[in-house]
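ok here's Pentatricopeptide repeat-containing protein:
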Amino acid sequence: MSVRNVVSWTAMIVGYVSMGDLVEAKRLFGEMPQRNIASWNTMITGYVRFGDLMAARRVFDEMPEKNVVSFTSTIDGYAKAGDMASARHLFEQSPDRDIVAWTALITGYVQNGQPREAVNIFEEMSARNVKPDEFIMVSLMSACSQLGNLDMAKFVDSYVSRSAH
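and the structure:
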């Protein structure tokens, strides 16, 4: 291409990340004359996807501007690495929390054997009038099973039934 812009550079980085070539993605990212939030987030997501949480956090910390995707991707990385204290800390720092951010935290707690914390986060989410999605409900069912909490399982089941109609 004779003329490249931030969109074409980011598209190439997305392609390399999708193909699992983080070396080439990182090279292009380093060469970019100008970056936008999408290019930064693509690198975070790529590093998280391939388990390089230190690099993901480095990119996150270097970002001049962060959004809910930046926070959520990094929270997800910490959760996948089993570092729920860091995931929670970052969640608390996030200025915006969408349903995906709540899901990342709740699912992280469940997958890391902390079902009580998952339920606590769900209760906090509900108190803030955030409507859960099907991913959160599946995680809650798993938390109920880990806890042996039949009452919570019945609540989740009735909530899902009400939402389906």
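+1. The chain has a mean pLDDT of 92.
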